[in-house]
Amino acid sequence: MSPLRWIILLAGLAFVALAPTQMKNYGVYLTTLWCVYLIAGMGLNLTVGYAGQISLGQAAFLGIGAYTAAIMSKAGVPYLAIFPAAAALCFVVGLLLGFPALRVQHHYLAFATLGFNMLVFLVLRNEEWLTGGTFGINNIPRPTLFGWRFNRPLDFYHLTFAVLVLTGVLMAFLLRSPWGRAFAALRDNPIRAESVGINTTFYTLMAFAIGAAYAGIAGALFAPLVQFVEPAPFGFATSLSMLLMVIAGGSGRFFGPALGSVVVVLLPEWLRFAADWYLAVFGFLIVAMMIWLPGGLLSLPERVRR
Amino acid sequence: MTALLEVRDVHKAYGAIRAVDGVSFSVTAGEILGVIGPNGSGKTTLFNSILGQVKPSAGQVYFEGADVTGMGALPLSRRGIGRTFQSLQVFGRLSVRDNLIAAGQEFSGSAAGRLFARPDAGLGGRAEEIIALFRIGHVAHLPAGSLSYGQQKLVDIAMAFMASPRLVLLDEPCAGVNPALIDELTELLLRLNREHGGTFVVIEHNMDFVMRLCTRVICMAQGKVLAEGPPEAVQSNRAVLEAYLGV
């Protein structure tokens, strides 16, 4: 990366870290939610953008992570154990889903993952003994880590931001490694990838499971953020929003989900001036963007140059 | 000399159609074998049967003495068989250099080791060698998908050599390539054969290319081997002329 890009990146990170200090509680909440969605979006970008698989089930993994955090924290398990547990559980579920589901591709895979999302939603809604059913689980405590309590919205935001930076660094490391090249190779040309020794089954599964683990970490932050979980936020609509996040920002581009999650989480809030029309305006903007910028917002400079 | 590749009585039928009908041949190390024949004669089906893309109805394929019949692309590549396809097969969004590294990175170490390996998987030097050999240094940093057809063809072929395979099967390397590049490709493959001991099996329609490159030629027609021998002998074979020209 060039020095200029490093400066832009560090300035951007400093802005995101500090901006909420000047915000009211709702602004801090929204920025925290943006970070949470961004972590899940980074995972989905790995699955969709880098490895070329389609997934309409990311919200299910977000839900598994959130309920894992809710149940474990209510049982008194420290968050230091909850984050890895949520990630590991989603990784394993991602592998178990991936083994049969990744035998199919494209729209068939989309429907397989959609079915999985429905299944998880039904489990969350119907298995009251574990999940509280439609009543959900409330009074989820905010984390305490190394004696530091993250009760205040701003403190919790900084924790979420730190996790975002950490997961971002890990993702950058993964994508720069030979694994990242293998993911891109199987996205671009799976037949050739296999002929040059790339184990497409292994790498597809890994992309899917790591993407799921990221959603698990995001879920483990979502639960203490809202301090109440119920099945509704983990339905199909959220999975679609996450896919929109990846595509609107720029699928297969590292910073794509960062912009995409601005579109999905923050843009509807900024459009509230349009009152009852805000959803219509939002929908129109998305349609227009998909037509003129199919490569996502990050493809804007290339579009301008053409 | 022991055969590097041995194809024994391979058959492949699709219903009543016998695409490959009892083909046998062998390839020794250092040889360049040409496979020619009119369209529909079974050349590509034969390739696909050798490379496990289709399962032969009968017969065996041996590589370095081991039975590899029906083995898929992945285990065959790991045993040292490289290939190119009839159509262009590059990783379009990766740079040329990354295409080459991707083509070689899986052949050493473990998957876990590659996760923590250097970004170039320790293959930067090898990639530069291949780039220099194929004279594609001026486009090495560009996405492979942005190159001209001929340049992509070179990258496609170069990728097959990245892992130092002991045998490379080339499926119509001259298809859609301009005459100047065909000359360059011929020189390159001859050099790889002479200096690096490269062993190739080449399916090709361009007879001039086959005559200049191959040490031995097999002509196929209707799924069978019609003629086999030195290029000049096969070219002037009466049955071959009949199959090609209908005379």
From TrEMBL, chain A:
InterPro entries (UniProt xref): ABC_transp_permease, LivM-like
Molecular-function GO term, any one: branched-chain amino acid transmembrane transporter activity
Pfam family, one: BPD_transp_2
Membrane topology type: Multi-pass membrane protein
GO cellular component, as recorded: plasma membrane
Membrane-spanning ranges: 28-48, 79-99, 106-124, 156-175, 196-222, 254-271, 277-300
Protein biosynthesis found in the keyword field: no
Keywords, comma-separated and alphabetical: Cell membrane, Membrane, Transmembrane, Transmembrane helix
Subcellular location: Cell membrane
Keyword NAD: no
Official protein name in the record: Branched-chain amino acid ABC transporter permease
Organism, as annotated: Limobrevibacterium gyesilva
From TrEMBL, chain B:
Organism domain of life: Bacteria
GO cellular component term, pick one: plasma membrane
Keyword terms of this UniProt record: ATP-binding, Nucleotide-binding, Transport
SUPFAM superfamilies attached to this UniProt entry: P-loop containing nucleoside triphosphate hydrolases
Pfam families, per database record: ABC_tran, BCA_ABC_TP_C
Residue span(s) of domain ABC transporter: 5-247
InterPro entries: AAA+_ATPase, ABC_AA/LPS_Transport, ABC_transporter-like_ATP-bd, ABC_transporter-like_CS, BCA_ABC_TP_C, P-loop_NTPase
An annotated Gene Ontology molecular function: ATP hydrolysis activity
UniProt protein name: ABC transporter ATP-binding protein
Organism of derivation: Limobrevibacterium gyesilva
Classification of source organism: Bacteria, Pseudomonadati, Pseudomonadota, Alphaproteobacteria, Acetobacterales
